Amino acid sequence: MKPGAGMKADAVVVGAGVVGAAVARALAVSGRRVVIVEQGVPGGAVSGASLACIGTHMMDEDELPLLKWCCDEWAAFASVAPDFEYSRCGQLRFLKQESERRSADEWIGIETAAGLSPTLLDPDAVRRIEPELTGPIHAATWSPNSAVVNPFLAVRRLLEAAQAAGATLVSRRPVTALRLAGGRIAGVETAEGPIEAGIVVLAGGPWTAKLAATAGVDLPIVPRKAQCLATVSVPPSIRTVVGACKAEGGVDAGYTQIQQAMSGQILFNTVLEGGVTAAGSPDDIPEVDRAFIRDSVATLLFLFPAFVQIDLLRSWVRYEAVTPDDRFLTGPAGPDGLFIAAGDGGTGFVRSLGMARIIADFVGGRESPFRRDLYDPARFDMKAAA
Amino acid sequence: MRRIDTDLLVVGGGPAGLEAARAAAEAGIAVDLVDAGFRPGGQYWMQDPTGAPPLSAQGSKGAAAIAKAQATGVAFHSGAEVFAAFPDRRVLANAADGPIEFTPRAIIVATGAHDRAMPFPGWTLPGVMTPGAGQRLAKLGGTSAGERVVLAGSGPFLMAVAETLVKLGKPPVALIEARPTDSAIIAHLARHPGRWREAARLLAGARAIPERRSGWIVTEAIGSERVTAVRIAPVDRSGRIDRARSETIGGIDALLVGWGFRPMIELTALLRCRHEHDPALGGWHCVTDRASGRTSVEGVYAAGEVTGIAGAVPARLSGRLAGLSAAADLGADTAGDEGERASLAEQLARARAFSDGLGRLYAPPADLVTLARDDTVVCRCEEITRADIAAAFADGTDAVAGAKIWTRAGMGRCQGRICGAAVAAIAAAETGITPREAGFNPPRIPLRPVPLSVVLETTRDGQE
C-alpha cells in the first residue's frame, strides 16, 4: 500500500524497526489511529542486523524488573502470533580464566536476588548442554530463561499485529522534519507531503537525534558500528546462545555472541576492546573490517574447533543507537506530543516491548509499572544542571 | 598465505580482462590477473580445462590472446576466486593451493556476466537450464544438454548456442525467440555493416533447426522426473502473451531458456563503485568513464560486461582502454598512446551503439514477470515461492531488500545471484515501483562461500 499525502492520524510512529513496530502495536491496540513511517524497508536497518536475544542475563541490575516483564511478554506474543522462530534455548556465557569468576558470581548473585535462576557450570556440565563446545574454557554461566527470535519475522509479526489493530504502514518514505503548530507537535513532514498527528513517537534508532533536532530537541544518541558474520546452513550444532562473560578483562573486555538460526546458519560476532575502528555512519555503511573478522572467527573456533571447515557465507554491519548510560531514551521530550523511544545500545529486541509499554502508558495517561526515570530522555540534562 | 604486491590486479580472464592485462603489461606495468576458471579465457573464449587445443575459431582467438598476455609478462592466477576486497584495495582470493592476498596499486574489474534467468512453472525441473549453462557443457565437455533440446528466450546469444549445438551434431529441435522479427531488427543490422558477416554466419547455422519461431515464449516446462515438453504461446511486440493460442512441443529432454545476461557487479559493488540500472545493458551495471574505464572510486577501473552487457567486441576494446589508462595513471610512459586511445574510444562507441541497440530490441517482454505462478519457486536456495514474496509485499514491505528479510529470498548460498533480478521484477509488478527502485542485494564479504579456516588464515597476520 502506498498511501498518498494528506494523511491524518492520532499518532505517527517514525521507524519500523522492532521498537517502532512494538510502539505502533501498543498504541493501535489501545485504540489509536496509528501511521508507521519507515525510510527504508521495515526491520531492514538496525533490527534486521540484530542477533535478537531475549534475556535477562548480564544486562543491567536496575532494569531487571522490566527485562523480566519483557521476557514474559515475548513468550506471550509468541504464543498468539504466527511463527517467528521464538526459541527459549537458554544462554551460556563462557569464562576463559579464573579471574573472570568474580564478575560471574556477582551477576549470578544479582539475578538470583531478583528471582532468576542463573548458575555456574564447569566445562563438563557446559558440554552436556552444548556438546560441540569443546574448546578449553574455564567455566560458563547458564541462564535458562534466555530466548532468541528471528529478528525479521519478529518485526513482521509486530507490524502485522499493529496493522490488524488498524495501523497503517508506509515503507520507503523518509521523514524529513517534525511539524509544530502553536508550540506543540502537529505531525511529520515527508518527501511526499505531511502526515498530521497530535502525537509523534520517534523510534528511529541512530537516526532519531537528527529528527528530534528539527523540533529543537537535543538527544544524546550516537551511532556505534556493530558487525556480524554468518556461515552457510549446517545441520543443528549449536543449541543455545553462547556469549562471553561480561567482565572487566572478560574476552578482553569485548563481547561475543554465537547462535544458530533456525535456517541452520551460524551467526556470530566477537568484538575485542578497541577492535572496531573503521569509519562510516548509518547512512554510509562500510564493510566489516579485517580485525573483526579475525577475532570473530578465532573466538568461534576457540569454542567450537570442529567448525573449521564450515563455509563463511556473509557479513554485515549496522549502526546501533547508543546513549551515555546504555539505557533507552523513552518518554516525552520537548514540545507537547513528542515522544522518544530510541537508544537500543545493541539490545533493543528484548527491551522493545517494555519501551512500547512505557510509551503507551504515557500516551494513555496511565501509571507505568516500571521506573520511568531510568529512561527519561531529559535525565542527562538534569545531571548536568545538578 | 601467499602475498603479492603488484602494480595492477586484473580480476577476470575473459576478453576484457586479457586485453586490459596485456595493454598495461606492454606499457611496463607489473600485472597480475586472477580468474576463477581452470584456465583463462572466460565464458566467451572458454578453453579446455585439460589444455587440449581449441575446437573453434573463437576458442583459437582466445588461446592467442592468452598467449599474447603471457608473453608480455602478465602473472596468471587461475582457479582463484576473489572473495573479499577492502577499502585499501587489498583483495583476497582462494585457490586450490591456498589463499592469496593481493596488494595492488590499482584494480581493473572485468568479471563478466551471469545468465539472466527468470522463473516460470517447471523451471526447476531437471533438464531445464540457461543457454549459458548449455553452452558451457558443449564447450567444456563436448556434450549437449540433451538429445532433443529446445532453445528459448531472447537475444542473439541463442543463435550462438544454436551454432555450437549444430556443430556438435545435436541441432536443437526448436528455437523459440520471444522477439518478433520485424523491420526494426533489419534496420538496426543495416546500420552496422561491420557485423553482417557474423549475423549471416549465425543465421546460416540456425537453418539446421527444424522449428524456428519468433514472437513466441515458453510459458511452462512440463515433466515429472525431467522436462519432457514445453508450453509455448505467442508474445507480441508490446510484450503481451496470448495464452489462448498456446501450443505444446513434446518429446524433448532438455530446455535451455534465458533472457540475455546481467553484469556481474559483486566486486565493483563491494568496492562501492557507482552503479546504474538500464534494462538495455542488462540491468544494474558499474558506471565508468567510457574512454578510460575509470569508475567512481579512485584506483578502480572496470571493463567489459560488468560495465553493461555489450558482448565480446566492446569488451576487448574497453579492456584495452582500461589497461592503457590504468597504466598511464600508475605512471607508465604512455606518451604517443593518445592517438590509439582516441581511435579505441571511437571504435568502442560504435560497437556499443550496435550492442545497446540490440539490448533494447531484445529486452525481455513485459509479461515475462507474469509467468511465475503463486506456487512457482523463485529463490531456489531457500525454496521461496512467488506467493511468499507477494504476501510479504501485501504485509507492507517492498523492494528486493524487503522481500529478502521477510521471506529469505536471496539469503541462501547463492546470495541472490540467481533470483535477484526476478525478485526485483516481481517487486516492481506487485508494488508499482520501478526495477531500479527495487534495488539489488548488496554483496558483502565474502563474495563466495569460503571455509572458516581460509578466512582465519587470510585475516590472522594481515595489517588491520
Would you kindly provide a written description of the structure presented here, covering whatever features stand out?
With 386 residues, chain A is an alpha/beta fold. Chain A folds into 2 domains: 7-48 and 152-221 and 325-385, FAD/NAD(P)-binding domain; 124-136 and 222-322, D-Amino Acid Oxidase, subunit A, domain 2 (D-Amino Acid Oxidase, Chain A, domain 2). Chain A has 9 helices and 20 strands. Chain A has helices at residues 18-29, 64-80, 101-113, 123-129, 151-164, 208-213, 290-303, 348-364, 379-385; strands spanning 7-8, 11-14, 34-37, 53-54, 91-95, 119-121, 139-143, 147-148, 168-170, 175-181, 184-190, 193-196, 199-202, 222-233, 241-244, 255-260, 265-271, 311-322, 329-332, 338-342. In chain A, the strands form 4 sheets. Chain A has an 8-stranded mixed sheet, with helices on both faces. In chain A, α1 runs parallel beside α5 (151-164), α1 (18-29) packs parallel to α8 (348-364) and α2 (64-80) packs across α8 (348-364). Chain A is globular. The mean pLDDT of chain A is 93. By secondary structure, chain B is α/β, with parallel strands linked by helices. Chain B has 3 domains: 2-114 and 262-359, FAD/NAD(P)-binding domain (3-Layer(bba) Sandwich), CATH 3.50.50; 119-258, FAD/NAD(P)-binding domain (3-Layer(bba) Sandwich); 367-433, Orthogonal Bundle (Arc Repressor Mutant, subunit A), CATH 1.10.10. Chain B is built from 14 helices and 22 strands. In chain B, the strands form 6 sheets. In chain B, strands 1, 2, 3, 4, 5, 6 and 19 form a 7-stranded mixed sheet that branches. In chain B, α8 packs antiparallel against α9. The radius of gyration of chain B is 22 Å and the shape is globular. The mean pLDDT of chain B is 95.
